[in-house]
Design goal:
Blueprint lengths: L11 E6 L28 H7 L7 E8 L4 H10 L5 E6 L5 H16 L7 E6 L3 E3 L1 H12 L6 E6 L10 E7 L5 E7 L4 H9 L3 E11 H11 L1 H7 L3 H7 L8 H6 L5 E6 L2 E3 L4 H7 L8 E3 L2 E7 L2 E4 L4 E7 L1 E5 L4 E5 L6 H17 L1
Parallel strand pairs: 1-2, 1-4, 2-3, 6-10, 12-14, 13-15, 14-16
Antiparallel strand pairs: 4-9, 5-11, 6-9, 7-8, 7-9, 8-10, 16-17
């Protein structure tokens, strides 16, 4: 059980998972330049904002960035652009195997290098979240650092709107340490269910942030995910040679939704996973017609829309509630509220390309 006894080591490692492809923000975000490296709001990318969140935080002594090899140049460039005080190490995954594979690879790498022992606290975070205020978020991390962890800690955001794009955590009994027990997990809900969750105090957005020790991870993956544990048992060099055969599965499905040794830290902060064009619209400044316009764009009688122009002039008339994104390679047009389904278009395009190759 997680207790209030202080750990022998008063620091933790922060691991930023930066290998995602950001398909839901196609066509601006793509495999060669994923969304976490784009600069939507100002001169800092989402990845840089994630790094800077920990720049002066004394309870994290090292930052590890987990990427695929195609992003190595971008990552190094973006790290060099910011005045960063902490030591940053880049870990390159042998292959993209979703979050379970990335976390398994990271822990094995850190064990192999001697960077951690079995009781070191490991904080895993996505690289593409916006969280405000930063100091309030870090205060939660500081409090958790005082605990001796015997459970896996996940993080949940108190909903501040009706949202169908997130998974939810139903919370149970509140504990003396301000953590909540986990009752159940819910997949992305319908609008009606999301409204019900928003009005209730029993549901949190699943933030995709995890805190645990190596000892916790090994114990739980051995019990709940034997298909992954057989790779975790391998010597590091053997793991690297066999990494391509690891099941491609999220850590949520492989472990988080199975274990009983889990608690949730509720976060009362402003949060966006910047996971869709709809979320981009929500967080960006709008004009008097509630439009978000970027690039060479002229509008007439256009309302409640997001229009991005990268290369060409875009002009619109008599439209509302649309997403229109133009790049040198593609144009994406959708009704607002439907843009989360962009992955379906990408999948169809990939299948079409494969069919043409076979002809």
């Amino acid at each position: 059980m997680t207790t209030n006894k202080k750990s022998k080591k008063n620091f933790m490692k922060a691991i930023i998972l930066a290998g995602g492809s950001g398909k839901r923000l196609w066509p601006i975000s793509n495999k060669s330049f994923p969304k976490q490296f784009l600069k939507f709001l100002d001169h800092e990318s989402l990845f840089q904002k994630t790094l800077l969140r920990f720049n002066n935080f004394q309870f994290v002594d090292e930052i590890f960035v987990v990427i695929n090899k195609s992003c190595k140049k971008i990552v190094k460039e973006q790290i060099s652009e910011i005045n960063y005080q902490k030591k940053i190490k880049i870990l390159i995954e042998p292959d993209q195997k979703s979050t379970a594979g990335a976390i398994l690879f990271t822990i094995k790498s850190l064990k192999e290098s001697g960077a951690i022992d079995e009781n070191t606290k490991l904080l895993f975070l996505p690289s593409d979240h916006l969280i405000f205020p930063k100091d309030k978020f870090l205060s939660y991390i500081e409090n958790l650092n005082k605990l001796r962890l015997d459970d896996i800690i996940i993080f949940g955001i108190r909903p501040h709107k009706i949202e169908t794009g997130f998974g939810y955590i139903k919370i149970g009994k509140k504990r003396a340490d301000n953590l909540d027990e986990v009752n159940s997990f819910i997949e992305k809900p319908s609008f009606e269910k999301a409204k019900e969750f928003f009005l209730s105090e029993k549901y949190l957005w699943n933030a995709g942030i995890f805190l645990f020790t190596e000892k916790n991870f090994e114990r739980e993956i051995k019990k709940h995910s034997p298909d992954l544990y057989k790779y975790y048992e391998m010597p590091f060099e053997k793991l690297l040679k066999n990494f391509f055969s690891i099941p491609k599965i999220s850590i949520d499905y492989a472990l988080i939704e199975k274990t009983k040794n889990i608690l949730v830290q509720p976060l009362d902060v402003s949060f966006s996973d910047v996971g869709s064009w709809e979320s981009i619209y929500d967080i960006m400044q709008k004009d008097e017609n509630k439009n978000v316009l970027r690039g060479n764009v002229f509008t007439s009688d256009t309302k409640n829309s997001l229009i991005f122009a990268k290369k060409r002039l875009i002009s619109t008339m008599g439209l509302e509630n649309i997403i229109l994104v133009e790049t040198k390679d593609a144009i994406f047009l959708a009704k607002r509220g439907k843009s989360q389904k962009v992955k379906q278009i990408i999948q169809k395009m990939l299948l079409q390309q494969e069919s043409k190759k076979k002809l």
